[in-house]
Amino acid sequence: MNHPSNRRPWRGRIAVGVLALFAAVGTLPADAASLLPGPLVTVQWLHDHAAAVQIVDIRDNVNTLMDEPKYATVDGRKTLEQVGGYIPDALSVNFWALREKHDIAGKKIDFLFPTADEFQAVMQASQLEPGKPVVIVPTGDDATSLQEAAFLAYELEVFGQPADQVAILNGGTHAWIAAGYAVDSDGIAPMTSGHWTAKTADARMVVTTAQMQAALKRGVRVFDARPLAQFVGVEHSPVIPVPGRLEGARALPAEALYFQAEDGSWRYMRSDRYRAAFAALRLGSVAPAVIYCNTGQYAAGAWFVLDRILGLKGIREYPGSLNEWEQRGLPVVGL
Q1: 8 Å CB contact between 41 and 135
Q2: Which of 199, 202, 220, 217 is closest to 291 using CA atoms?
Q3: Whether residues 217 and 140 fall in one domain
Q4: How far apart are CA 80 and CA 74, in angstroms?
Q5: DSSP collapsed to 3 states, 38-63
Q6: What CATH number is given to the structural domain containing 173?
């Protein structure tokens, strides 16, 4: 997992104007909500439909929004090494703004799931509007960026955005640049707030600590979505005081969920490849299930695969994950 620097979370808007085509009327055509072809879109699709959706850039280093792309020469060919800039007319969400500091047992604990009001404030500051399809754009430079995009998709759906109005650009900005499309790196223009509003968190998607304890006692299927080294306790995130896992959990390793394409971008796989991977891991039935990780990021990536790409029912996430679990003094098992 990546960790924040001492930068203040940036919650502004990149450049000027998204969905200018519909600004005069304030709403999209009636069929626009179903415009998205599925949970993943390609760079070609987004290029052709950019005016009809809200493009939302998400990254954990917003300084790179105004950088130029970085290239390297590999075997005599110019190859994109690191994303710089952003897709024209994109909104921006700082990944670190998607989690909050809350009180647990008298201590202020960081990286916890936001309340509806907290999440709504971030979305409005990012200029998000209601009733319009959203395409979330990770950098695509690494698998972590895909998890960050999934984390935003998960929070949007938890707080009321219909699933069919949210998709992720597979390969992210990396794939966009590699395909030859232009990016912007201009300064940020101040804008007024958006009008997106959050609903009460969907209890069908979120598991609390108490519910997690009860699920483990009942033998509910629980998956740990972290890398295998963290699952077995060889390594652990600096956020987590004690290495280990929840007793009874099975591994759904992050290493099996993403791949690097020929253009260098990291991507989600096709549904048939996931089914083959899960068969190779001998996971058996993977739904219904509860997924957790360290702070919710790895788990969101797994949720996106199971719920959105594979369309499985009954997939819930414990967003507090080991961060909240251990801060409450609850036990883990490991080596």
Answers
A1: yes
A2: 220
A3: no
A4: 10
A5: CCEECHHHHHHHHHHCEEEEEECCHH
A6: 3.40.250.10
